[in-house]
């Protein structure tokens, strides 16, 4: 991974200057080419296949072949993160899903394939579909229209991680995420600093674990 990063910087030396300029404004960018590289490293029989990543500013466009109950389906969507709220007990991420498309990656007569072929799914409001999924994951706390909100701290493994909770408790009073968006070649995370929260953060840092 380090070799790949060094190689990318050598081919794109302007990225170093761009990163330095953005950092002064608490804005950090990740080249979309890097996201494509990471996606290509995901292995496993259940991992998404043929992942494609591009930008549709301010959204990120994703497409991949996934296994839907044994049926290979090409799924794509433009994804815009419109909320990131971090506290000691919550890590909420609001996502708007637009231009959602499902297409069979291979001929099939499975129930999933039949449903897709019928055109009965209203993909313009994916949140409504998620809302009525049986045994919906606990991390999905809201789903309506084209928007889905997940709270990662509802995942038991994360919720029970004392170190993670402590880190969130220390960082959340002083640092937040203002926006996540794209331009043609980058995904940007814009941070928000809150100096007034420093006493609270220091108090939690000094508190015994």
Tell me what you see in this structure.
This protein is of the alpha+beta class and 209 residues long. It has one domain (2-206). 33% of the residues lie in helices and 38% in strands. It contains eight helices and nine strands. It has helices at residues 2-11, 14-24, 32-41, 111-118, 126-131, 156-159, 162-171, 198-206; strands at residues 27-31, 49-56, 59-68, 71-86, 91-104, 140-144, 147-151, 175-182, 186-193. The chain has a six-stranded antiparallel β-sheet. The protein has a three-stranded antiparallel β-sheet with strand order 1-9-8. β3 and β4 form a beta hairpin. α7 (162-171) runs antiparallel to α8 (198-206). The longest helix is centred in the N-terminal third of the chain and has 11 residues, at 14-24. The model has no long low-confidence stretch (mean pLDDT 91).
- What's the pLDDT, averaged over the residues? 91
Query: Tell me about the biggest sheet?
Result: 6 strands, antiparallel
Order of helices and strands: HHEHEEEEHHEEHHEEH
Percent helix range = 25-40%
Low-confidence stretches: none
Instruction: Report the principal-axis shape.
Output: globular
Q: What is the rounded Rg?
A: 20 Å
Task: Compute the number of structural domains.
Answer: 1
What's the arrangement of strands in the largest beta sheet? Answer: 2-3-4-5-7-6
User: What multimeric state do the chains show?
Assistant: single chain
Structural class: alpha+beta
Helical stretch tally: 8
End-to-end span in angstroms? 34 Å
- Tell me the fraction of residues in β-strands, as a range: 35-45%
Number of DSSP-assigned strands: 9
């Amino acid at each position: 991974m380090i070799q790949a990063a060094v190689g990318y910087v050598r081919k794109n030396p302007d990225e170093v200057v761009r990163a330095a300029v953005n950092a002064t404004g608490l804005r950090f960018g990740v080249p979309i080419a890097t996201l494509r590289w990471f996606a290509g490293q995901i292995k496993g029989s259940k991992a998404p296949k043929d992942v494609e990543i591009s930008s549709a500013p301010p959204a990120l466009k994703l497409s991949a072949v996934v296994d839907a109950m044994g049926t290979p389906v090409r799924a794509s969507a433009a994804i815009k993160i419109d909320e990131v709220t971090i506290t000691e007990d919550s890590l909420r991420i609001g996502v708007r899903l637009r231009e959602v498309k499902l297409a069979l990656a291979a001929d099939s007569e499975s129930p999933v394939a039949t449903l897709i072929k019928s055109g009965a799914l209203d993909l313009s409001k994916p949140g409504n579909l998620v809302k009525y999924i049986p045994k919906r994951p606990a991390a999905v706390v809201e789903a309506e229209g084209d928007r889905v909100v997940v709270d990662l701290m509802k995942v038991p493994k994360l919720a029970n991680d004392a170190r993670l909770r402590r880190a969130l408790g220390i960082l959340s009073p002083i640092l937040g995420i203002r926006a996540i968006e794209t331009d043609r070649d980058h995904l940007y995370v814009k941070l928000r600093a809150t100096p007034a929260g420093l006493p609270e953060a220091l108090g939690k840092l000094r508190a015994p674990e």
